[in-house]
Amino acid sequence: MSRPLTSTTSPAASGERSSTAEPLRGRSLVIARTGWMVITACTLSLFVAGIPSEFATLGTGCKTGCVSGQLSPGELRALHDLGLSTGLYAAYGVALDVVFAAVYGAVAAAIFWRRPEDRMALFVSLALLTFGTTTFPNAASALAATHHA
């Protein structure tokens, strides 16, 4: 019976570069963690600040230029025909966005907690956090529509 051929030399011994990047250490690790925490604090504060604006926006109808999730007059009539209030619709929309952001934030925090020295893990956790709090949820767009500055 023949065995498959395997290489006994490591990539470092044969002069090849390893496919894994060296982990962050020292000053670069402190800078990366600090930057991650600053960006996290900014995105979470914008998300939390946008929740009241999102609730107010979803609770009112629009005539023209509707913000994402805002109901047109026809949709408002259909909502009332179903026996549902605009407050319930707004609460549901805000709760859905909070759950969505919480799941993305929890996964980002788990990645950051488990691999804080890995460059790619920091990048992925930051991307998950910013996507989950500013891209999909309507809180940021409602805040921007309410407070133009």
Describe the protein.
This protein is elongated. It is built from five helices and no strands. The chain has helices at 26-59, 73-81, 86-114, 119-135, 139-146. It has one domain (26-146). The chain is mostly helical and 149 residues long. α1 runs antiparallel to α3, α1 packs parallel to α4 and α1 crosses α5 (139-146). The termini are far apart. The relative contact order is 0.16. The mean pLDDT is 78.
Write a compact overview of the structure shown.
This protein has 149 residues and is an all-alpha fold. The mean pLDDT is 78.
Total beta strand runs? 0
* Rg, nearest Å: 24 Å
From the helix content, strand content and strand pairing, which structural class follows? mainly alpha
Whole-number count of domains: 1
Strand residue percentage: under 5%
Instruction: Please summarize the sheet with the most strands.
Output: none
Please tally the helical runs, counting DSSP H or I stretches of 4 or more residues: 5
Mean pLDDT: 78
> Which regions are unreliable across 5 or more consecutive residues at pLDDT < 50?
none
Q: Looking at the structure, what is the overall shape?
A: elongated
Give helix % range: 55-70%
Order of helices and strands: HHHHH
Distance, first to last CA: 75 Å
SSE inventory with pairings:
Layout: H1 26-59, H2 73-81, H3 86-114, H4 119-135, H5 139-146
Helix pairs in contact: 1-3, 1-4, 1-5, 3-4
